[in-house]
């Protein structure tokens, strides 16, 4: 509403300036000045002179807000909070800039067609971020508004020189009706909108671009319902994770006896399309009061202990998803949060995040034994159906390797342990944060071949292999156990960011496994020496040797100081929810579709110029030399001359004779003697072929038109010359041709109707 009000003020200033009237550049300047004053009043009035006029302090304020907005955009997932003044400045300022461009092009310079480009930029961003089922309706509204703008401009131009297209509609007295242009424009608009809505249904899908859906952070409204969309849960972490300094993210105080098993889970990724693991679109509800429901699949015979944990997030750490031990049994937290029951996760509602929050979590320390996992019953049909899905694009080597590694296993639990041990111990894999596996559907096969990667590669691959064996699997992202501190707390830093697979066993529920070498801790129930024990694997800590966060950049075993100097630094562990896949690239038809779409986008603004170039070449091109060819060639040359004059601002007047029309072109175009003589020669040739008993060809007419065009170009400014080339006015003849074609189709259809009725009556 604020942007709409400021936009109305801006447009009102333009309308007033044009009524004065001011020169076009002054009109635009007045609107730009008012726009700056409006933005200053809204965002920097305390730093401005008289609350309106911006000075150095106000400019500093704008710079600060823009930097803040950039940081917030990198930090927040959609929807970002409007409480951020930086984002509000970008939104409102961007809308006002686009509004100024549209008003300048469509009204001040009276050229509505190019105004569609800034409007398209504004619409494309919203369409690209939309995830609703009514996208076609909003496209229809936007496109209809733009077509109305074009129709208004066309009717305004027609009113200036009297040409009425759509000759099928006439009044009772035989005079053309003024409503014909409106009806014809509507018909053309309906056809264009129908094509725009129907044609994309037959084109190949092109996902992952500007218009790909990305969803929203939480459901709408303030009630208890809503959905959570398939978005990357680590958008707000990505920039902070990929730094060398191991800054503290969370400070944890817990009553858990063994903190080496204290994983803080953010969210689970259960939707796998062959390239990306992401959270499915799930229903969300209000956070339950008191205790949470028992986790899915957890039976009463499994040992468990309830643990109290207090977590404090750093003041700079703004995460939309709440890090918690899994499975949580209750949460005490302030702010607006929603609960997703299937994953047992909490997500901030419309801008709520963890920045500086302290919250308490009650969680279950589930301690299954190896025997309980080995004797687990088959999973429910719904769990098996939803969590064993694999895309057809997954390379066959994944399932084949899974069967080879787990050969001889007696049950799904044995298969899971064999997979974990193969990745973590016996398979010869190396932990390397600098590995480049590539992208594409073959990347997972590349990882299995090269055997180098970090937690994202290990967890994603093990989960996919488990699904190929029929074991329900998903990937959890969050933080591995942090570093114990002297005061009894645990410091969780950026380098503790982690991803691990969770496999489902009936009677136990979702169970953590740890395939990544040198990270986290092996679950006690996977250790064959002492099944079910809680002895930590002290040989595989995830924390650094220091007890406190270091101010110096952290290093890894695979990153030397020399490599930092040569490569510009080493990448840190970052569980980005994107599968690092092979380098086979997109399919040929997708490349072809994108190439055709790119050519169409480039050709659309150039279509008027290309049409004029083609029309000019046909009219002035080769022709027959006989007397029979004199009439069509001469009339085509005359048509090109009048259209060229029209392109330079001299609208045609078809009520005048060729001689008077030529004199008008010479006078309004201020042509020199050479160009004027050429125009008159063409007019004389037209009179000769129209009125002579035996028309004869006149040589040199093509050169006469070119000399006249050069004279017209020399007498106008640079802007008019550019418009004559890029957006020639005479291209409106395309609209007239379409109108005539449509009128002919209607007339033929009406003429055939009596015949149909007569034939139907005879047949009856």
From TrEMBL:
InterPro entries named in the record: Bact_TGase-like (IPR052901), Papain-like_cys_pep_sf (IPR038765), TgpA-like_C (IPR025403), TgpA_N (IPR021878), Transglutaminase-like (IPR002931)
Gene3D superfamilies, sorted: 3.10.620.30
Single biological process term from Gene Ontology: proteolysis
Pfam families found in the cross-reference section: DUF4129, TgpA_N, Transglut_core
Keywords on record: Hydrolase, Membrane, Protease, Transmembrane, Transmembrane helix
Lineage: superkingdom: Bacteria
Biased composition (Low complexity): 541-561
Chain ranges passing through the membrane: 26-44, 89-109, 136-152, 188-206, 588-611
Annotated spans, Disordered: 520-579
A GO molecular-function annotation: peptidase activity
Keyword Oxidoreductase included in the entry's annotation: no
Domain Transglutaminase-like: residue ranges: 447-517
Xref: PANTHER family: PROTEIN-GLUTAMINE GAMMA-GLUTAMYLTRANSFERASE (PTHR42736)
Protein name in the entry: Transglutaminase-like putative cysteine protease
